Amino acid sequence: MTQTAAKPQPEFTPQDVQADVFPDEMLQTDLQHAVSDRLNSLWKQRRLIQRAALAGLLAGTLLAFLLPKRYESVTQLMPPDNQSNSGVAMLAALSAKTGSGLAPLAGDLLGVKSSGALFTGILRSRTVQDRLIDRFDLRHVYGIRYEQDARTELSENTAISEDRKSGIITISVTDRDPKRASAIAHAYVEELNQLVAELSTSSAHRERVFLEERLTSVKQDLDQASKDFSQFASKNKTIDLKEEARAMLQGAGTIEGELIAAETELKGLQATYTDNNVRVRSVQARIAELRRQTEKLGGPATENAGTVVDSPDSTHPSLRNLPLLGVTYADLYRRMQLQEAVYESLTQQYEMAKVQEAKETPSVKILDPAVVPEKKSFPPRLLIMLLCSFFTFVGASVFVLGRERWAELDPQEPGKRLAVEVFQTVNAKMPWSPPNGSRFQTWTNRVWVRLASRNGTEKPTQDEHESPRV
């Protein structure tokens, strides 16, 4: 039996053995070499990178000091109290009246949640913003023509937030003037308090408004009744008709009694003496005076029925006129007393309604008032300088690595050829390139040539920069 010839075994090189046995180690070695080459390239171009970082630092410094300073003023409000269901209804109605983001809050408020979210919505409403814009003339301050743009600028300069746990509302206002920033933050609180009071729709508020209107009407009626009564009393010389009538009746009775006694005495004297006697004449004169006083108290005898006529020099009404005066006097007096009683009752109810309204209306309580800021909040100059320097350092490093990678690429590689062609095409459209026959390129080239000549550079010639037109 013959033995078969053994097949020759393939020979393995040490590199193949190493590639099969240690693939991870070789991949790691190649990665280390690549990183080492990139770091070496960066080290060689360290001066370029340093100059770029320094230029970025200088540019960042210039930018940091050119940016205007801005100051921030902060005020904090305590969470409003949830008094009653009427207060919740009032807050829900507020959401429909103020608008600008308040409507979505109505559902939460009807679920008896905190009204802090509503306060936040009111502070962001268009009504509050318009009042602040008019109050501080922010269109002139911001250099804006339209009020809508002023609202946008004010919204960007204002931050309003509510802490979910504590319910504290924070209002932060940023402005170039620290005093104005503090004033605007304080004005937000004032406008919030005023708007909540104006738009309150609680039952106590409605009652207070009704009583206020009724008080105004009743006050006018009371003033008119008092005026009519005073004019009647002044015209008829009546201060207190009942007391005057009582006094006049007593006086008339006294005079009548004296008159009867004097007449009796006169008859007795006439029986003894003649009419020329001094005593008789004296009694007659006294009787005449008593009769004159009686007529004065009773009024003139020539008065018509139903007509009130008194002597101009009389200091009080006559007894004959008292019944006629009494009816009008009592009517005017009763009317005045009625209006006065109604006014006093409405005044008491009005004061009680004001107290109840104050209880039901959510109050704005300031936790931290707005103060004038002492330090600027923007710009962070050191941070801007460091960021500009860092980004220019990174940009220069990327540029160095990219340029080196570009040089390593084969000129015949499709990607590189495409990039070169695109760059050349774009560069040909630039003003510094010779015109390529298009009118736009010719015009831009002429402008570029004029600018170059004004800056002191040599004007390009026609042969160098302009190709012959076809």
Describe the model.
This protein has helices at residues 14-21, 23-44, 46-66, 85-98, 106-110, 116-123, 126-136, 138-142, 147-156, 178-198, 203-236, 241-272, 278-298, 322-360, 381-408, 414-428, 439-454, 462-465, and strands at 71-77, 158-162, 169-175, 366-368. A 4-stranded antiparallel sheet has the order 2-3-1-4. The protein is 67% helix and 5% strand. It has 18 helices and 4 strands. It has 4 domains: 23-67 and 379-408, no CATH class; 71-202 and 361-368, no CATH class; 221-348; 414-470, no CATH class. The longest helix has 39 residues, at 322-360. The protein is rod-shaped and about 170 Å long. A hairpin with a 6-residue loop joins strand 2 and strand 3 (169-175). The model is unreliable at 1-7, 17-21, 83-92, 99-113, 301-309 and 457-470 (pLDDT under 50).
Strand content: under 5%
Number-wise, the strands total 4
Helix and strand composition category: mainly alpha
Low-confidence stretches: 1-7, 17-21, 83-92, 99-113, 301-309, 457-470
The Rg value, from CA coordinates, equals 53 Å
Integer tally of domains: 4
Instruction: Tell me the number of helical segments per DSSP (H or I, 4 or more residues long).
Output: 18
Shape: rod-shaped
What strand line-up does the widest sheet have?
2-3-1-4
Average pLDDT taken over every residue: 75
Binned, the helix content reads: 55-70%
What series of H and E elements makes up the topology?
HHHEHHHHHHEEHHHHHEHHHH
**How far is the N terminus from the C terminus?**
93 Å
Largest sheet: 4 strands, antiparallel
